[in-house]
Amino acid sequence: MGILASLLRPLFATILISVSRDMNLCSIKVVKKRVGSIVEQDEKEFKILNGELSAEAIKYIKKLKSRYAFSYVGILSRSIDQILVPGSKKTYFSNFGISEKECKIIKLKNQAFISMPKDEVIQYQKEFKSAMGLDFLFSPFVLLFFKSKTFLSDLPKMFVLQDKEYMATFVANRKSVLYGRLFSINVNEGYEVMKYNSDEEYKGGVMSDTINNDDFDNEIGGIDEELADLDNFNFDNISSDGDNVSVSTSDSDDSGMDDLQDLGRSSSILNFLQSALKDFYTNSLYDGDFVEEVVVFDCYGMSSQALDNVKSNLMIDLSIVRINIIEEISNLIQIELDS
């Protein structure tokens, strides 16, 4: 950001555009902030067409980014080809099959590295190109790194991000990050473990491959318009036509699964947790130690019966923390902007 932009920055609103998607729906949350405080927010849902964002979703994001000079789009990567490497030395990369030429790398506060294949990063950038670019592509491990902070103790704890289509595990204590692993969840076929692959380098604890301000002068044209109606903007005025989907208030609609399917899913999750714990304890790549508790950040919404099934069979203390994934993405964008 240039000197002029830095001087003018406090005068204008910041728009955080969080995108969360699965195979069927895309949720977009817009938070308008001024001087650190939220003054307006809105959330919309759009259909996913042929595995891609719909034209209406792209149009909605583009209108926001065109109107506001300080607007930022962030999404959580759904790729299971991400790899977490504990420690602060890149010499360990070869043990995990990571090639820096083929991957991007996130560094987690000198405690660990996260690798992500470059071709998958490029795919995310292409998907948002028509919406004036993607500013932040976050790893689930980064989200778990920040969410775990208030739960850490001297003994290792396993932290789990449970979404509809994937699960991420992350083991840490107060001093260090010890382990991470991703699983792809299929409702009909159980779960599939990520394979160690090759991967390269990001900066900081959060990937921000491109902050989509190519040049402040290119965006200053929209600032005069913003000044004119800075406090009167209503997000409803830019709602897109056609494919906008009303937000459902039914948990059963959100999950798209009945109780029997959810119980079957819980069996897969149990297997996943047992597999991750065994890997942490026995794999020579990790400094395994007894895990005193598993903390699940549940953004999917498992039934109470499914949770009881996992708890009764895991044979280790388990806590469930409900989270809203799209709000967590907004928080990550703000963390990155503040860094």
SSE topology sketch:
Layout: H1 3-8, E1 14-21, E2 25-34, E3 37-49, E4 52-53, H2 55-67, E5 71-76, E6 83-86, E7 103-108, E8 112-117, H3 118-127, E9 136-138, H4 140-147, E10 157-162, E11 166-172, E12 177-186, E13 190-193, H5 216-219, H6 221-228, E14 244-245, H7 251-255, H8 259-282, E15 293-298, H9 304-314, E16 318-322, H10 325-338
Parallel strand pairs: 1-5, 5-9, 10-15, 15-16
Antiparallel strand pairs: 1-2, 2-3, 3-4, 3-14, 6-8, 7-8, 10-11, 11-12, 12-13
Helix pairs in contact: 8-9
What does the model show?
By secondary structure, the chain is α+β, with helices and mostly antiparallel strands. The protein contains ten helices and 16 strands. The protein has helices spanning 3-8, 55-67, 118-127, 140-147, 216-219, 221-228, 251-255, 259-282, 304-314, 325-338; strands at 14-21, 25-34, 37-49, 52-53, 71-76, 83-86, 103-108, 112-117, 136-138, 157-162, 166-172, 177-186, 190-193, 244-245, 293-298, 318-322. Strand 7 (103-108) and strand 8 (112-117) form a beta hairpin. It is globular. The model is unreliable at 189-257 (pLDDT under 50).
Give the C-alpha Rg.
21 Å
Shape: globular
Strand content: 25-35%
Described by strand count, sense and barrel closure, the largest sheet is: 7 strands, mixed
Jot down its keywords.
alpha+beta, 339 residues, 7-stranded mixed beta sheet, 10 helices, 6-stranded mixed beta sheet, 30% helix
Task: Provide a brief overview of the structure.
This protein has 339 residues and is an alpha+beta fold. The protein is globular. The protein starts with a helix and ends with a helix.
